[in-house]
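User: Run a structure prediction on this.
Assistant: Running it now.
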Amino acid sequence: MAESVVEGEGGDATRRDFIHIAAGAAAVGATAMVVWPLINSMNPAADTLALASIEFDMTKVQEGQQVVIKWQGKPVFVRYRSPAELQRVIADDHASDLKQPQTDAERTKPGHEKYLVVLGNCTHLGCVPTFGTGDFGGWFCPCHGSHYDASGRIRKGPAPANLVVPEYDFVSDTRIKIG
């Protein structure tokens, strides 16, 4: 009879130990599940950390071509304008239909007038305009009908402002740094 009591107590103690270990493991797992999102939320957002500034090689853009790059989650149009486009936008610098008057020289960097760098979002509701389909040889936003010239200036439609020129600099003759 004494032997069966000892075995019963030993068996109960083993089950009790297992329950304590399992409960402890579940508590550690639950704590990790609660704490991890809190710690992870302290990390900077990817769009502000990795893309705060970017460099782009301008040799990838041929005359008359536009390249779209992504910066801070937004499209950026980098356009290498042809001499005909440049003549047209400079001639329109003082046109009477400019909603937000700005010369082409104010929208480009001195010595690099052939390159135009603008955010690729319509200033009306943020749609992405297409190039070459507008009435003024520039961009057209098909969502609501805004027309921009080849300098990114609003010429017709509901958009209130010109396409935004982001902060950028030429770090060499062939590379720009945006941001």
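The helical segments are 2-40, 46-49, 83-91, 104-107.
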